[in-house]
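Task card 7
Instruction: Convert sequence to structure tokens.
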Amino acid sequence: MRPIQPPPPGATPNSSSSSSSSSSSSRGNRPRRRPDLTLPLPQRDPALAVPLPLPPSSSAPSTSNLHNGSTGAGNSVGNNLNSVFPQPAAAAAAAAQQQQVHFSELERVNRIGSGSGGTVYKVVHRTTRRPYALKVIYGNHEEAVRRQICREIEILRDVDNPNVVKCHDMYDHGGEIQVLLEFMDGGSLEGIHVGNENHLSHLTCQILSGLAYLHRRKIVHRDIKPSNLLVNSRKQVKIADFGVSRILAQTMDPCNSSVGTIAYMSPERINTDLNHGKYDGYAGDIWSFGVSILEFYLGRFPFAVGRQGDWASLMCAICMSDPPEAPASASSEFRDFISCCLQREPIRRWTANQLLRHPFIVTHNKGLHQQLLPPPPPPPLFSAS
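Output:
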């Protein structure tokens, strides 16, 4: 574009406008100087196309309209965009899972478990017929504790891992706190016997993947045991109750069965005089995990006393005797794996990420364990000179 030239001295406005109109008409009739100069149109790659987000509407729809599925102008626009830019199946499934479920829409089917900390029911969403597990936590907690529980469960709702039971929602109904969880139709692993090391390695790898994920998010389970390891019909093993035990620990005795089963507790957690009074929750989870895996292999509780024994007998067996070991008939890889978990000194126990790279896991899960390993740390932005 050429700059506008000022009118010549003495020229009147009318003459200026007439001259500009005549010059513009002459420019319009002038042929193009270089007809071969053209701008190439950008080529659109369909593989990189993503649906654009909707602009914010002037009036946000109410929550009741969203949950009741009422349609309007905004919904029609959204449906049109979805027809042009269909969402991927994974994104659509994730969006469906994130949809809020009202407590009034849940239909109780039957009780599937109970303990001193609460009762778990199987419930069904009336609209979608999707099954869930509803855990009712006992006790009338003080207001400050209730607010803390709500904050903790809000954090747990963001947990998303294929080997951790999904926490969907939380309700405060009738003075009781109720947590809506993913339903696992295969039940728990309590009482199972897995003598085949190949099968046990697959099971162990899944549990380790979920435990490593929780530890990376700074979440300590505090109650790893066979009854908190669930399985579904697709043979997926998932960790359950990873938040409730930690929440209730603030108001209950740490050795109470609703907070942590003493049979699977680490020695330094039972006897606070050990390890100079310091307790590492992550190392404590590894001890409980190792006891559980050894119990699966043996088909029984690995200590000399029963897990249902009295508190004094269990404390002596766990705190004063040597850690249990895998039998000599087991492979050297499995014996070493159990030894890496059941070290009396917490600092000598391997982390979940390290155990995922142990030969017992790598040998039997050559294709799977690579997918379960945590992503490598990002490279530094600037190299040291």
